[in-house]
Write a structure and sequence with these properties.
Shape: globular
Distance between the termini: 21 Å
Strand content: 15-25%
Strand order of the largest sheet: 3-2-4-1-10-9-11
Largest sheet: 7 strands, antiparallel
Oligomer: single chain
Mean pLDDT: 92
CATH superfamily of the largest domain: Aminohydrolase, N-terminal nucleophile (Ntn) domain
Structural class: alpha+beta
Number of helices: 25
Helix content: 40-55%
CATH topology of the largest domain: Glutamine Phosphoribosylpyrophosphate, subunit 1, domain 1
Radius of gyration: 25 Å
Number of domains: 3
CATH architecture of the largest domain: 4-Layer Sandwich
Low-confidence stretches: 463-470
Length: 659
């Protein structure tokens, strides 16, 4: 888990080496253990590895300043968080024996040992115990097709001097980030947007249509666009080839239903899911540093803890956030899970004290505004884990794979209806009738807190978009509303035959998981922690997205197959949980109490955004409506705050790209 950055001056002009060093230092939180650089003159075939202040002296690398009189048109900068092979042999950028291939890897290749064994059988000799070297030799042997063999979370950049080609790729699910910018004279890439901005500050121009859509819907990372108009992200499961005269992107993986059904055993789904989860956890426990877990007491995180502790001889450290407010407190389930698996439990209870100051730090690390308050609770969990472990397993993804949210009930009924129409089998109608009442009771029981309200919000937004009428609380200034075009509607072709699975596919690929992974990566890396997500192992994803909907929902039981697969391992109270929270944060309550005045003063006194986005009178009116309990606008208010902070940090000079 690391931070990488690269500059290629396509016009042959010298790279600003000092600028590269400054930009690399901005990514120090992603890799405090080591730094490395590579200077390349692409036409003269001159390649010079260099070190910096925190480079291990045993490597004997020269400092960058020694080459200030020379000109290089391509340069790499790297910050390392040492997880596998803690010795200097894991240093990056890493070159092959001939010195024609150089790679920087952010993330982990979990199956590197199996790949290494294969490559050694083909005559490759290794100098380190790192997964990065396995990737390097794998590319030597197989070229870009090596991507199909990788099991991991990764974003990497590989320079091929002989072909004068820069090859970049991002993991299938998009767990690790990679951003880029290109014009006729320059190609830049980095793990975080701030790295690019440090080199080209003039790129700090907002993508206003994207921002308008984000403020309305909370959607983020749902395309290759970012909130910076000229900076893009490499999409998940995509590779990139950059040369002097071209930039080519293409996808290398997607869900192919027929192939997947032939690959996995669907006749024994419980055994298949259990095996895939066990193997994902086995691979993701590989580490030369301490590993801990996030633990909410929910089905997903507790399943990960159960599988991890069954393979580890020592006591795991688990990290959780709890609240005392009714409807938000998961403390009882956290204690049950921690006791059942004998973890060393660390529990934090975030408060609204210092709320805006903390959000300022979060926004700087995120590079963009954030959509909802769950990121606030997650920040405190990662802060608690910082210094205690360097790797955390998390349960991210289970809800999107196995239909854990209440708003999946509609597509579930649609799946049953579609099957009835296709087969005329009355059993599907009977299933609809049988499941409707318990589902209604479940949703109604959780309406007050976290059940029906988000569901209704999403439903109203979708209906309003279709009929062309906004049902959202709009606080835009009239001029901004008129002058800023809306994003074009994104095509959403049917990818999977079953309506529920198709909805889950789009949430995984575009509408939900990408933003959640963005938040997890930045929050964890802010404290130099590598967050791993076993439920998003690509094999688990493939298997789950092609399951029958009846294995995901049955009456008021969501994630049915996971409950069955883990029935002999999990405590009964957790198996029986029916509430759905997910980093619950009582911001709605705080904004009706002591936090209200602080937020109101901040939003209504902040006139530094140019051009003006919000109508202050509308903001004041909606804040008052929330305070009086007329409706829950906490998520919208949260976006207004982080949008304001984003402008102040990245556009108004209130931060030199630092906290």
């Amino acid at each position: 888990m690391c931070g990488l950055i690269g500059i290629w001056n396509l016009d042959g002009k010298p790279v600003d080496v000092r600028g590269l060093v400054r930009a690399t230092h901005l990514l120090r939180h992603r890799g405090p253990d080591d730094e490395g650089y590579l200077l390349i003159h692409t036409q003269k075939h001159r390649i010079v590895p260099c070190g910096g202040e925190q480079t291990d002296p045993r490597l004997g690398l020269p400092r960058m300043e020694e080459f200030s009189a020379e000109s290089f048109d391509l340069a790499f900068g790297f910050r390392r968080l040492a997880i596998l092979d803690l010795s200097p042999t894991g240093h990056q950028p890493m070159g092959n024996d001939e010195g024609g291939l150089w790679v920087m890897l952010n993330g982990e290749i979990y199956n590197y040992l199996e790949m290494r064994q294969d490559l050694e059988g083909k005559g490759h000799t290794f100098r380190s115990q790192s997964d990065t070297e396995t990737l390097l030799h794998g590319f030597e042997e197989y070229g870009e097709s090596i991507l199909h063999d990788l099991n991991g979370m990764f974003a990497f950049a590989l320079w091929d001097q002989n072909r004068k080609n820069l090859f970049c790729a991002r993991d299938r699910i998009g767990i690790k980030p990679l951003y880029y910018y290109r014009d006729p004279s320059t190609f830049l890439f980095a793990s975080e947007i701030k790295g690019i901005l440090a080199i080209r500050p003039e790129l700090r121009s907002p993508n206003f249509p994207y921002l308008k859509d984000f403020l309305k819907t909370g959607r983020l990372d749902h395309s290759h666009f970012t909130l910076f108009g000229r900076i893009f992200q490499l999409p998940p499961a995509h590779l990139l080839h950059a040369s002097l005269d071209s930039l080519q992107l293409r996808s290398y993986w997607d869900i192919e239903e027929q192939e997947i059904r032939e690959r996995y055993d669907y006749l024994h789904p419980e055994e298949s899911l259990r095996f895939l989860l066990q193997d994902a956890v086995r691979l993701q426990l590989r580490s030369d540093v301490p590993v801990g877990t996030c633990l909410s007491g929910g089905l997903d995180s507790t399943s990960v803890v159960a599988l991890a502790t069954s393979r580890s001889p020592g006591r795991f450290k688990s990290f959780s956030s709890v609240y005392q407010e009714e409807g938000y407190d998961e403390g009882r389930f956290v204690k049950i899970a921690a006791s059942a698996f004998a973890t060393n439990s660390y529990i934090v209870q975030p408060t609204p004290t210092g709320f805006l100051k903390t959000l300022r730090q979060i926004t700087w690390h995120m590079d963009e505004p954030t959509a909802g308050p769950g990121v606030y609770s997650q920040w405190f969990v990662m802060r608690e884990a910082g210094g205690k472990v360097k790797v955390l397993l998390d349960g991210q993804g289970g809800d999107e794979l196995l239909a854990g949210y209440y708003y999946y009930f509609f597509p579930y009924f649609s799946s049953l209806w579609s099957r009835f129409v296709a087969s005329k089998d009355l059993r599907y109608l009977a299933r609809i009738a049988q499941d409707f009442l318990p589902i209604w009771r479940l949703v109604r029981r959780n309406f007050r807190f976290l059940g029906l309200q988000p569901f209704l919000r999403k439903l109203f937004i979708q209906v309003g978009d279709r009929i062309g009428t906004s049902v959202r609380p709009v606080a835009f200034a009239s001029e901004f509303e008129r002058a800023t075009p809306s994003l074009a509607a994104e095509p959403r072709p049917s990818r999977l035959a079953d309506p529920l699975n198709d909805r889950l596919y789009w949430d995984l690929a575009r509408d939900s998981i990408p933003a959640l992974l963005h938040y997890e990566d930045r929050n964890s890396m802010a404290f130099s922690i590598e967050a791993r997500v076993p439920l998003l192992d690509h094999r688990v994803v493939e298997f789950c997205l092609c399951l029958s909907p009846e294995l995901k929902i049955s009456g008021d039981r969501t994630k049915l197959l996971l409950r069955r697969a883990m029935a002999d391992l999990l405590p009964q109270p957790i198996l029986d949980r029916q509430d759905k929270k997910g980093y619950p944060t009582p911001l709605a309550l705080w904004l009706r109490g002591g936090l209200y005045q602080e937020v109101r003063e901040y939003l209504l006194s902040s006139h530094r955004m140019q051009p003006a986005i919000f109508d202050q009178a509308k903001v004041a009116k909606l804040l008052e409506e929330h305070r009086r309990g007329k409706r829950d606008l906490s998520w919208e208010i949260f976006r207004w705050i982080t949008c304001n902070l984003w402008f102040q940090l990245f556009f108004h000079g209130e931060s030199s790209f630092g906290t």
